[in-house]
User: What shape does this take?
Amino acid sequence: MKIESWLFLGGTLFFLPIAIVYGFMTGWSEWVGIPALFMLVALALMLGGYLMFTAKRVGPRPEDRNDGEIHENAGVVGAFSPWSWWPIVVAGSAAIGFLGMAIGWWILYIGAGLSVIAIIGWTYEYSRGDHAH
Amino acid sequence: MVSVGTVVWLASELMFFAALFAMYFTLRAASPEMWATETDKLNVPFALINTIILVSSSFSCQFGVFAAENLQPRRTGGMWNMKKWGMIEWFILTFILGAIFVSVQAYEYTELVHHGIALDSNPYGSAFYMTTGFHGLHVTGGLIAFLLIIGRAYIAKKFGHFEATSAIVTSYYWHFVDVVWIALFAIIYFLK
Assistant: This one.
């Protein structure tokens, strides 16, 4: 679909002149807005370019045709977790870690240790136990 | 699906680094005479070699991705036959190169501290350590990600698209961090 990439590439076409005009209007001396605007151009270009690249790689999709059928999209889309406790464990350990920065450094070590468990648990959830493949 | 999400997240990371670039340029515009004296203390050839190491790690990472896309986790030939390397061998090489980069950067930090540039010494020190330091943290995060991905490849009895997808998105992150470093390097060590 062309619209998905042009949605973002349009941002590139909009922000590039904006960034140049902004540069001239501030006399190229305001160094917060100028890099931010130019990197906004890069952001839009990155997303639009990637979507265009992906669309080319995937080829024509049934949802782009008026006579497309639902069954044409059947097949494996990807691996998605139906539910998981691990994100809560990661969030909790991160919270304990930041609490350590605010209250006392010793708490940070507890948070760091729990983070190791949480990240390994999350990454390997579908590689071990009942899900080992 | 996972890869599109990763690219969207990396786009937001780009704006995080935009804030750091903005900070660097703002401080530089505010005190140009400090930049003139402090940037002379930088060891540019040293940093250039380190940059080459990081860029070469991006290439080894990409070869690992090609192996992962062929669903080939391990080497099919001898240890030093790089043509037959699988994803694990390429990613271990990438990990070693990335670890060298972080270690050399830590060494460079100690050198600069000896020359009187510390995080709290002056605005130049703040700008230098905040930009390169946040980048170094990203590289370290990438190294942890590589370890997790290598572990996943070892643990899988059947290396499939589940493992390959995570390897590919980790490579996206690695290339992104690499490109950010090239921009940082050009600004800090050449533009000054």
Notes: Chain B has a mean pLDDT of 93. Residues 99 and 143 of chain B are 7 Å apart (CA to CA). The helical segments of chain B are 2-30, 32-38, 44-69, 87-114, 123-155, 161-191. Chain B touches chain A at residues 1-4, 7-8, 10-11, 14-15, 17-19, 21-22, 25-26, 28-29, 144, 148, 151-152, 155-158, 160-162, 165 (CB under 8 Å).
